[in-house]
């Protein structure tokens, strides 16, 4: 049997807490494709590595 990679998945609430945004913002990022996620039943799980990568991206200048 192949070995599974060590991937840690976070709930939307955990991602929101780490990113210091609302859960709705996390859902928007997931639905827009900016934050990859896997759907388990009716809930989403986000790979911890994707959150880390999103937090390290430079912020675009606004206006």
Automatic annotation (TrEMBL):
<dbReference type="InterPro" id="IPR041657">
    <property type="entry name" value="HTH_17"/>
</dbReference>
<feature type="domain" description="Helix-turn-helix">
    <location>
        <begin position="9"/>
        <end position="57"/>
    </location>
</feature>
<protein>
    <submittedName>
        <fullName>Helix-turn-helix domain-containing protein</fullName>
    </submittedName>
</protein>
<dbReference type="Pfam" id="PF12728">
    <property type="entry name" value="HTH_17"/>
</dbReference>
<dbReference type="InterPro" id="IPR009061">
    <property type="entry name" value="DNA-bd_dom_put_sf"/>
</dbReference>
<dbReference type="InterPro" id="IPR010093">
    <property type="entry name" value="SinI_DNA-bd"/>
</dbReference>
């Amino acid at each position: 049997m192949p070995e599974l990679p060590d991937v840690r998945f976070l709930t939307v609430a955990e991602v929101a807490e780490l990113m210091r945004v609302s859960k709705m913002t996390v859902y928007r990022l997931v639905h827009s494709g900016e934050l990859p996620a896997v759907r388990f039943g009716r809930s989403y799980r986000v790979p911890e590595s994707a959150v880390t990568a999103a937090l390290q991206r430079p912020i675009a200048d606004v206006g």
